[in-house]
Amino acid sequence: FEPFDADEYIERLAWRTPGGGSKGGAEAFDPKKLLEEFVNHIEELKLLDERIQRKVEKLEQQCHREAKEFAHKVQDLQRSNQVAFQHFQELDEHISYVATKVCHLGDQLEGVNTPRQRAVEAQRLMTYFNEFLDGELRSDVFNNPEKIKEAADIIQKLHLIAQELPFDRFSDVKAKIASKYHDLERQLIQEFTAAQRRGEIGRMREVAAVLLHFKGYAHCVDVYIKQCQEGAYMRNDVFEDIAVLCQRVNKQVGEVFCSPETVMAKLIQSIFENKIQAHVKERLDETRNSDVEQYLKNLYDLYTRTTALAAKLSDFNLGSDKHTFLSKLIKNIFSCYLESYIDMERQYLQSRSGMILQRFYDSKNHHKRSVGTGSIQELKERIRQRTNLPLGPSIDTHGETFLSQEVVVNLLQETRHAFERCNKLSDPADLPKNAFSIFLLLVEYLCVDHIDYALEIGLSAIPSADAKNANLYFLDVVQQANTIFHLFDKQFNDHLMPLISSSPKLTECLHKKKEVIEQMEVKLDTGIDRTLNCMIGQMKHILVTEQKKTDFKPEDENNVMIQYTTACSKVCAYVSKQVKRVRRSMDGKNVDTVLTELGVRFHRLIHEHLQQFSYSSMGGMLAICDVAEYRRSAKDFRVPLVLQLFDTLHALCNLLVVAPDNLKQVCSGEQLTNLDRNLLHAFVQLRVDYRSARLARHFS
């Protein structure tokens, strides 16, 4: 039902009343009729309210009466429940009492029955014993092949009894029982073998349960293990065959034997000590003395596959300490090979690395020079670092850097394989030490014998600063050495660090790496510095040969048609070429560092060069054009300092052309105000009109 709305109710009532509509209609609005209708309706509502009120009171009285009746019923039920609970407790106590009596009676009956059963069993065994004593086995159980299980149980018990009898009086009967014991044992094993060949799991389980109490039970297990392996090794992959075999036997062994974990462990032990050990010995012994590389590969492969197989086998139930059990089996097979592993690894790595390097130098028809060691070489190195002088004759390498990424990749690949084998084949306690020894070999052959040697040759090939048309190949050496070192650093982080990160050897490795880097950086810095000197020497040679004194004091001041001098053009072309070479040869902050140094030296050269000439008015304008072109080349450096230096030089050149009256104003300008006055004076003195009293007076 919808909620009651008084306004809507009155509206409907007025609408139904004749003459009560608010909007007129057939009858005009009549308030008296509407009032009369309201009064009558109110009376009807009062009567209706009284009837409903009486009905509510009646229902409330009925509800109170039924609530009292229900409460009485609940009380009656509670009393009945309490009585029933008491009866239940009494019944439970009675049942417990009867049960106690029954258990006591059962114990008494068992106490009487057990001795009786033992007596019956003893009597039965004595009867069978008498037959052995008489020498004639008359009982059907010993003569009926179908009762072999029952006969086995009897003979096993008689055999235990016979062990306790004195030998001198019962030697014959003991021998007969033992003979029958071994005969039945042999028959049971034969029956088990036949059932295994037929695939009768149920019969195998029955016979194995009987043999469990015989001494030949272990022989039964051996027979089972031997037959399981018959025809199992049909693939070329013995490890895959073993995994399939063990998976199949693991499902079967639980259905046959009461202690499957023992049988499974014995099967795996047999496989490891026979099949795997023979396979490993055959694969390794044939290459151990003839092919060390193949021997190491085979050792790594066999050890990896054996440990992977052991991981699979650890999923089976092999007893409580299966991981130790499997580890011991692996150790027994590989211990004799792992003891000498690291020595053979280092021996192979030395031989292989030396061969890779020698093959490279032979391909270049290069006989490797001795770079020298000892105090004399160290003294030369210190002198070279401090004076930047080439000690010893310069050699011509014909553009050969004597660095090869192919050689580096081969060395790193051999070392990576060595690290992988080291990680797998080394004892955990020896792993950091072994990895460090491999790293030292990498440093020796890659960093010292290859990179450092190439740097030495590169340094020797750098011409003197005053050489003409010198070929500067050392930047190519820098480029390749930088690339190679990135590869070396990547292998250090990816393959060596995981092996030594948690050992004291980490400090030694980092120290050795830092030492190697610093040694190479010293030689790289020396070579780059001398190369920059050669570049400046080349520029100086161009300026000396191409720049004429008449360039800046032309005979005909009004007939100068060039934008800048030939010397400037050639120097700028040379600078642009060298800037590109530097960017191509280096990366990161090294580019800015080297270009900054080259730019500063370039500026110094031009600054000193300009001070060697006298300038007429038109010559000064041409000098400004040259410096503007030099400044355009300086922008290629992308070094703010270099550009600032050439901006200042350009401002200095303005002193060569400015009117005498404006000299002081120009000198106090933004770019020249902080410069030394002597420097400004030196540039003003280069003007051909400096001697005039007017100019000297204005600058004084």
From TrEMBL:
Query: In the UniProt record, does the keyword Protein transport occur?
Result: no
Query: Which terms are listed as keywords in the entry?
Result: Coiled coil, Exocytosis, Transport
A Gene Ontology annotation in the biological process aspect, one of them, is:
exocytosis
Query: By its UniProt entry, which Pfam families does this protein fall under?
Result: Sec10_HB, Sec10_N
Segments forming domain Exocyst complex component Sec10-like alpha-helical bundle: 150-699
- What GO cellular-component annotations does this UniProt entry give? exocyst
- Which chain positions lie within coiled-coil regions? 42-69
Q: Which residue range or ranges hold the Exocyst complex component Sec10 N-terminal domain?
A: 31-140
Give the UniProt family note. Belongs to the SEC10 family.
Return the protein name.
Exocyst complex component 5
Source organism (scientific name): Cyprinus carpio carpio
